[in-house]
Write a structure and sequence with these properties.
The chain has 308 residues and is of the alpha+beta class. The chain contains 13 helices and ten strands.
């Protein structure tokens, strides 16, 4: 049996690599004991701000067997999105993950292919694919599967590739060979904590989501609070500061996923262009992008807030 588990696991990992995933790790589908009290405290302190959806499905977030009946394994996958080129220096900034096509669609397609491959090669397998859109604690599973450790900025970090990648999962009813977590390599570094302009990293490994620039520019639907004026450092959608300053991101290499390549306008526009953006241009540049989440009005609101 264990030989079979090994064979299946290496088959799956080889196919994940062929599909373009950066890495693939596997862990046993079981209750996340360590995360339960942490998540509870985080919600009690209101650190999720207006993201009320985080209060839903508490038990499902912690137990994959409640999400996928009979599940045995959580297969975690990383997909690189680090861009070849970044925006014009005199520009309002967009988080690098949103440069190209909306990652939900790109990854979902790859996960479908991987699932199909497993069914063809191994037999009847039941399971579900997750890309950051269901109650799954992605980073916790990826860390448990040995793909990296959770850094002081609360992102998953790997010595080989830093942190500019998406995390996705397949939760399946197949027993596999399980990986073990890696050790933490943040050491005494506090670069991310020192660099955060809104002091969202309230202590190492703890981020107050309701103070994060990404939260304000994407999740918050109300007016942006004046008390934070001048602290957004020109970020109009998302924020990469804590990742940009992280020493491990020296090892980030550009992705090779054509769908993540940005619209030329996104790289070339300067502040004046963004301030004058029309709905038509917005729709053209962000036609299939994650930036559509803020809608034209939301992006305009953010740009107006940034104007000196």
């Amino acid at each position: 049996m264990s030989n079979l588990k090994e064979r299946y696991t290496s088959l799956i990992k080889a196919e994940a690599k062929r599909l373009g995933f950066l890495s693939c790790g596997v862990s046993k589908a079981e209750f996340l004991e360590e995360e339960a009290p942490r998540l509870e405290k985080y919600l009690q302190k209101g650190m999720h701000g207006e993201m009320k959806y985080m209060e839903n499905h508490f038990d499902k977030r912690l137990d994959p067997t409640k999400l996928v009946e009979g599940s045995k394994s959580v297969i975690s996958l990383l997909l690189n999105y680090y861009p070849q080129q970044i925006q014009n220096q005199d520009s309002y900034k967009i988080s690098k993950y949103a440069y190209g096509r909306d990652y939900h669609f790109v990854i979902k397609d790859k996960l479908k292919d991987l699932m199909q491959f497993m069914q063809n090669e191994i037999g009847e397998i039941e399971g579900r694919a997750f890309v950051d859109s269901a109650p799954v604690l992605d980073k916790a599973w990826a860390a448990k599967s040995g793909l990296g450790w959770i850094g002081k900025h609360s992102n998953l970090l790997s010595k080989q590739t830093g942190s500019f990648y998406f995390i996705a999962e397949l939760i399946v009813d197949l027993e596999l060979e399980y990986d073990t977590p890696v050790t933490d390599h943040c050491g005494s570094c506090t670069a991310c904590i020192d660099a955060c302009p809104t002091q969202a990293i309230v202590e190492p490994y703890k981020v107050d989501g309701s103070r994060c620039i990404s939260y304000f520019t994407i999740e918050l639907k109300d007016e942006l609070p004046n008390s934070f004026k001048g602290q957004f450092e020109d970020w109009m959608f998302g924020c990469d500061i804590c990742q940009d300053v992280c020493p491990w991101n020296r090892f980030s290499k550009p992705h090779n996923e054509p769908l993540f390549n940005p619209h030329p306008g996104l790289l070339e526009n300067d502040k004046k262009d963004w301030e004058e953006i029309t709905k038509e241009t917005f729709n053209e540049i962000f036609r299939k992008s994650a930036v559509k989440r803020t809608k034209f009005e939301g992006l305009k609101r953010n740009i107006d807030f940034l104007k000196k």
